[in-house]
Design goal:
By secondary structure, this protein is an alpha/beta fold. The protein has a domain of 273 residues: Zn peptidases (Aminopeptidase, 3-Layer(aba) Sandwich), CATH 3.40.630.10. It is 32% helix and 17% strand. It is built from twelve helices and twelve strands. The strands form two sheets. The chain has an eight-stranded mixed β-sheet with strand order 1-2-4-3-7-10-8-9, with helices on both faces. A hairpin with a 2-residue loop joins β11 and β12. α1 crosses α2, α2 runs parallel beside α3 and α3 crosses α12. The longest helix is centred in the first third of the chain and has 29 residues. 45% of the residues are buried.
Length: 440
């Protein structure tokens, strides 16, 4: 009898704890502020909460780890109405560039919307009944979190920038406590800005070599120039084998974050893929490395056009579409690798370009239309043994860690564009995994 009583008490305790956890998940999922900026831990919490709250349609797992051992969390969304073989797989990947926080927010929002609206919204229900959606909100978690200190596009492979044998030995730091990492210049008090000499960024000069911040935390490696397709092919003058200005990794797929995504897509080939970014407002499609059209040029151009229209309508902001090469030529990008190696219809969605609408070319006009904080020069007669020092607080530095206005509207509009991509599939022969492709 005592044994039965103990078992009963244990069952009640487990049931109570389960109820508390699921109750917390529900509260978390229903109170997310999509107008806020979230730290990297949020995305692990979100994907985990979706899997616990909606176990019939969501499961979460890590596909790899970053240099700093942060997990790359994927949430897989699909109902059990049909078998996997009857469904069309799609991938959505955010934040390959750490400082592009809005790309992670919009990617995560799409996963959240699909899961929380299943059974309530006909579009969400139709998609999860007929597709498998893989969502990776943050591909570069180290760069993402570092960008709360200063914008860090790259990953955090240990790097010794100044050659003293100590990686990251003189990182940037907010010395004056204003919350901003300033650029540091020297120049007379009455000098013009264009005449001042740049000497570094705000730092206590940890290594005491007289150059502040010359061994910052960041690798200089662009993950989106490091995929194993046309790697390091040309520079701005298209010289074969030359080093491109945006800096690939030391070898194809050299970085753990890139390896993780390549391995995942080889193992889980999808019909279509979108990778989300910021910097301009557009939808791009392959090729990135060549002006030549792909075999699926007309199809991907049409889908890109329709995605751009949907995002423009949903956000109230202008978006354009273009073959990626004709916007800015690059090599070894994710979308070229996905299409060139696996025959995946692939798209880059650039979700945010801060600032007022410009004139002239379409890139200048397609912006978010918001006012950015002005640059600010601050003079100090003496600083850390230097005379006539100027701090420049750039507009970008002032926006560090801050969400742009109407980020929730951005999330909703970009989601609408992603739905267009999803519903355009299946089309054509589908993904093809060549025998020569191997896991790393």
């Amino acid at each position: 009898m005592k044994k039965l009583l103990n078992i009963g008490l244990m069952f009640i305790l487990v049931l109570s704890l389960t109820t508390v956890v699921f109750g917390q998940d529900n509260e978390f999922l229903t109170t997310i502020d999509w107008n806020s900026r979230h730290h990297v831990e949020f995305y692990g919490e979100l994907t985990g909460a979706l899997a616990r709250e909606y176990p019939d349609i969501a499961k979460t797992y890590s596909i790899g780890r970053s240099w700093r051992e942060r997990d790359l969390w994927v949430v897989e969304l699909s109902s059990g109405v049909k078998s996997e073989e009857e469904k069309t797989p799609i991938a959505i990947i955010g934040n390959i560039h750490g400082g592009e926080h809005e790309s992670a927010e919009t990617t995560a929002y799409t996963a959240w919307w699909l899961a929380t609206n299943y059974g309530k919204d006909s579009t969400s229900t139709e998609i999860l009944d007929n597709y498998i959606i893989y969502v990776l909100p943050v591909m570069n978690p180290d760069g993402y979190e570092q960008s709360f200190v200063y914008t860090c596009r790259q990953n955090l492979r240990p790097t010794d920038h100044n050659g003293d044998g100590v990686p990251f030995g003189d990182p940037y730091k907010d010395v004056n406590g204003d919350g901003i990492i300033a650029e540091v210049y020297t120049g007379a008090r009455d000098s013009n800005p264009e005449d001042r000499k740049f000497i570094g960024k705000e730092s206590p000069d940890f290594d005491k070599n007289g150059i502040p911040g010359d061994d910052w935390i960041g690798s200089d490696i662009d993950l989106n120039r490091t995929f194993n397709y046309m790697w390091n092919r040309y520079d701005g003058m298209t010289e074969i084998g030359a080093k491109y200005a945006t800096r690939s990794g030391p070898s194809p797929a050299s970085e753990p974050e890139v390896k993780a995504v390549q391995n995942f897509l080889i193992k889980h080939p999808v019909y279509a893929l979108a990778t989300l970014h910021t910097g301009i407002q557009c939808v791009l499609f392959p090729w990135c490395y060549s002006p030549e059209p792909t075999a699926d040029h007309d199809f991907m151009e049409t889908v890109s056009r329709d995605m751009a229209k949907a995002i423009t309508k949903g956000t109230g902001r202008p978006f354009y579409f273009k073959q990626s090469y004709h916007d800015y030529p690059t090599t070894a990008e994710m979308i070229d690798w996905a299409y060139g190696r696996l025959n995946i219809h692939s798209y880059t969605i650039e979700v945010y370009s801060g600032g007022p609408h410009g004139t002239g070319n379409i890139e200048n006009y397609c912006t978010w239309g918001n006012e950015l904080p002005p640059e600010e020069w601050i003079y100090m007669s003496h600083w850390q043994g230097l005379d006539d020092v100027w701090f420049l607080n750039t507009s970008r530095a002032k926006m560090t860690g801050q969400a742009p206005p109407d980020q929730a509207i951005m999330c909703e509009g970009v989601k609408d564009g992603l739905l267009v991509m999803i519903k355009s599939e299946p089309h054509g022969d589908g993904p093809i995994v060549p025998d020569y492709l191997e896991y790393y």
